[in-house]
Every structure is written in structure tokens, then in C-alpha cells.
Protein 1
Amino acid sequence: MTAEVKGVIARAKGEPVTIETILVPDAGPGEAVVSVQACGVCHTDLHYREGGISDEFPFLLGHEAAGIVEQVGAGVTSIAPGDFVVLNWRAVCGECRACRRGRPWYCFATHNATQKMTLADGTVLSPALGIGAFAEKTLVAAGQCTKVDARAKPESVGLLGCGVMAGLGAAMFTGDVGPGDSVAVFGCGGVGCAAIVGARLAGAVKVIAVDLDPRKLELARGFGATDVVDASTTDAVAAIRELTGGYGADVCIEAVGNPKVFEQAFYARDLAGTVVQVGVPTPDMRLDLPMIDFFGRGGRLAPSWYGDCLPSRDFPVLVDLYLQGRLDLDRFVSETIPLDAVEDAFHRMERGEVLRSVVVLGR
Ligand SMILES: NC(=O)c1ccc[n+]([C@@H]2O[C@H](COP(=O)([O-])OP(=O)(O)OC[C@H]3O[C@@H](n4cnc5c(N)ncnc54)[C@H](O)[C@@H]3O)[C@@H](O)[C@H]2O)c1
Ligand SMILES: [Zn+2]
Ligand SMILES: [Zn+2]
């Protein structure tokens, strides 16, 4: 039977979000209905509300979530009702060229639910990143549910569903950080701080955090940065060189989405080093670098989408590391809030006051 639940809706560009009744159909073939327990507020939700991602309003926001599978449709064998799952936006198809070549993290035919959730009057909703989890229940493709150890806290491990995974993977997978490496992370929001944690997990010995905001640099230290650089008062490139014996860092991670910061990351790396870009640019941004510097310095410039992760491979492992006390996901949760406080949380995020506000439901 179609469920009637509350959800956070962005009706029109730039307008404050509203809480509305939404209709969630029963799970059809290949789908699942998930009872959402927690969902983090990500910058991308705000981008949707601002019309920066598409103009397919109204959006059902929310996409960094964990919950309990309530119902599965025909043919679903990977999960069952009662399973504790983290939702993902990379349910790989297994059949496209990327999947067949053994690079499923580049899958270009990822699955979402086929049926639509709607407003009470039948208006079709666009769920953020194919998830839409600022709601008591949501409908997704079964492959968007990754079963993990149920002893984990939903508000912490739900964050693996987007920003934290993007940062961890930028260091561990895209940047391929290894034991003994030096790493510089530009921008210490949720994504950058996760990149710091990922660099440490991968064995980096020096992890330099760069930001303009001293509050963020303090947080970065808490996540294990060995050095911090306030780029509002210091030349970040010179500072990173000095901290790395004059060489530059092996891996520089841009977690802002700003061409000036990209340029700093480009020049702050050692010869043959890697720049990972995880910050999302806007369409008007341009890079202008002397080609001889690109050629002459060697190395790699690597964009990173969702940390090149494979949810089915990575989420259970990361949750195990969390439960063993080796990956502090609790530290990313600045506050827990009710469903009707998302708009306020956007403002706190814009003012730089939080790493993650997390909506907690049903408790
Ligand atoms: N590639 C992906 O798959 C993916 C996934 C999720 C988010 N993102 C993107 O990652 C970026 C960061 O996300 P977030 O949630 O951490 O955002 P955030 O706003 O919390 O953090 C950005 C940080 O950058 C700092 N900053 C701003 N300008 C700077 C500058 N010139 N030099 C140094 N630091 C500067 C800010 O003070 C802030 O601490 C965003 O662009 C977001 O859209 C990418
Ligand atoms: Zn595929
Ligand atoms: Zn996100």
C-alpha cells in the first residue's frame, strides 16, 4: 500500500524548503522501501535548492542516509526486510562498458528506482541523487542499499553515503596515497576532513591541512592533520614546500571547487606528484596553466567522483573500521536535528559553523 510520510521539499529555485506529505509506492521489481533513520545535510542538497544541479523541481532532498529495509520488490535477493543499510548513489549496472572492463566505479548506467514518489496531489518528485532521504521512508533501487553491521550508529555511518566517502576515497582510491606519502588537503569541510582521515588510514606520514577559516583548521587537527596552513594569511604553496623539505607534497587534494585553489594544489606538489580534484566546480570556472608546467612536472591530475568508491566493496569495510575504533565517523556529526530544521542547517553550513548536521528520524 502506498505510504504517506513527511519529506523535505525544494519547490522552487532559492526558496526555503518546506515539509510536505509525500507518497511512497510499494517496492516494485528491483526496488526497496527504506525506513530512514538518519540523513546528513550535504552541500549538494543546497546546490539542488539553488537550482545549480538541474531545474527539475520539486526536489525531495537528502542523500547521505542510513536506515532499515522495510520492503523489497520482486527479484531482490541482495537485501531483505530488517537489514540495516547505508544508501548510495552508485548502484552499478554490471553491464555497461565501464562495468565490463572491470572499472565499475565509472559505471554510467547506475540504477535508481523506476517508480516515482509524488506529492499528495500527484506531482512527481525528483529525489536528490536518486535517493531523497529527508523523509521518513524512501523508495530506491535495491542496489542503492548496502547492508552493513547493524551495531553502527545510523547518523555516523549514513555519512559514508556521500561526502565522507568522497573525501576518504579521494585520498585512498583516486590519490592512491601510500605509506610514507606526504599529503596536502585544501579545504577542510566534511569532504576535506574525510580526505585527511583517508590519507592517514592509507599510511601518509605528513598530512597538511589548508583552509581560510581557523575553526576548520582546528577541526582538521582533530582529524589528524600533522600541520595546518591558514591560506588567508600565508602563501599556501610556499608553506607546503617548507613543510616537505622543499619538495612539495606527494598528493594534493582540492576539496573546495575553486580554480585558484586548484592552481595552488598544482604547484604545491612534488615533481611527479598527484592533484586530486574532489571539490565540484561551476560551469563558468576555467583553468589556465602554462602547458610546459603540466608537462614538465609530470605526475597526474585526477578528478574524483564519490571517491572512486564501490559501495558494495567499501561501505562494509569502512563500517568495520569504524566499529573497531580505527575510523572516527562520530566526529563528523556536528549536531543531530529534526526533519523540520533542514533550512536552518543550510544557513549554519553556509556560515561554516558545522561539518555535518544530521537529521535523525523516528526516535
Ligand atoms: N566529487 C564528489 O564526489 C563530491 C561529493 C560530495 C561533495 N563534493 C564537493 O566537495 C566540496 C567540499 O564539500 P564540503 O561539504 O566539505 O564543503 P564545505 O563548504 O563544508 O567546505 C569547504 C571548505 O573550503 C574552505 N575554503 C573556501 N575557500 C577556500 C580557499 N580559497 N582556500 C582554502 N580553503 C577554502 C572553507 O572554509 C570550507 O572549510 C564541495 O564543492 C562539494 O560540492 C564533491
Ligand atoms: Zn555499469
Ligand atoms: Zn552529498
Note: Residues 3-162+308-360 form a domain with the Quinone Oxidoreductase; Chain A, domain 1 fold (CATH 3.90.180.10).
Protein 2
Amino acid sequence: MLKISILAPGQNLISYRAQNNTGSQKYLNHEQDIFVKKKISFTSNTLNDHVNYARANGVELDCKLTELAEMVCRTIDVLKNKNFALPSKIICDISYFEGKNANRKGFFYNGEENTVFLNPLACTNSHFGQLFSNNSYSTNFKEHPIFHEIAHFLHYKQNKEYYKSLKANKTKLEKSELKIIGYTLGDYVIEKGNVLEFIAEAFTAFVTNHINPEKVPEIYEIYKKYKGPEIKV
Ligand SMILES: [Zn+2]
């Protein structure tokens, strides 16, 4: 049985995690960080190499930044090795991130069902790295937003009508579920309380070996209840 308590007002998440071994800290194993473990490196490649690598994996990558294209390729590599489908298009173009979208790192919407959009500035801006170190999200590496958006795509793809209804109704996690999840997946999930965001953050932590779903069975049950992309454990 997982015991997860909710933060006291003003309590800092890092100190919370230090005091409570029920938080994700217990399950974080940076030694096993998937990138370190597999020694995936595309750093010597040019932008064109990355675009070609993505294309060879069925992804049309529209990106002008070598750094971001490399991040996308690392993400593709992890997901294809786990046999997940990939979006047929990943567009990294600042023109999609103006006005109300300016602070978003990316988005997926079911109107463009095979396309994931990434914000080139936000994905490579060190300000966002800062957010990660503050435990806002379920992992703390820079590819996180790419996994997160592809998670939305996979969730949609698994059951389109169900995903659309969760989105249209802005379905929230139940109070009892929020209590079980606590801050295990970072404060973004708890702040939003939104089922779609919970699935994307949980998926990202699971597929990158940051959290073993079997170690958090009650959270994994909630993940399966809302039809998160199937994870082979
Ligand atoms: Zn999201």
C-alpha cells in the first residue's frame, strides 16, 4: 500500500521528497537513465543527418535547430526500441507558438492526428531546464517535452473516441486518485489535476525508466483505468 501525503502549505517539494520516501525519489535511478545506459549519442551529426534518421524511422522532421533535432532523434530511438508507434510528422516551428501558445513547450491535438508540434525556443531554453530541476515534471531531462507530447499522440491513437471525450470534458482525476498520485509525478500533474496531463507525465516517467510502474502499482492502476498507452512491464 502506497502512503502518500499531500504537501503542507508552503512546504517545498524537494524537502517533501527528502522526508518522504514515498515520492518519486525512491524510484528515480539516474544510474539507469535510459540515455546513459544505452549511450545514445547523435552529437557528431549534422541537422541533415538527424532529419534523415527521423525519416528512416517514418517521421518527417521539420526542424531548423540541430540541438532540438538531436533531442527528437534520441526520443525516437527510445520509443522505437520499445515498439511504440511514432507520429508521422514532428514540426518544430516557432510560428505555432504565438499569443496564448507562447509559453507552451509543445502540443498535440487530434485535429492533426499524426503530428506533434514542438516549440523550438521553449524546448532549448535553459529557463525550462530550471523548471525541470524544480521538480515540476516527472523526469528532469531535456527530452521530457518531446516524450510528453508523443504520449498524448499515443494515448489518442490507442482509443480516439475515448481520448476526445477526456479532452472535450477536460476530465479531472478524482480526489482519491490525486491523493494516491501525490507529488510522485511532479507538481504539474497535481496542479492541473487533468487526466490527459497525468497520462502524458506518467508515460514519460515509465518509458524512460525514471519510475518502474510495478513499483507504483496504485498509480499504474489509475494509468490503466484512463487507458494510458500500453507499457510492457
Ligand atoms: Zn500535455
Note: The CA atoms of residues 17 and 23 lie 5 Å apart.
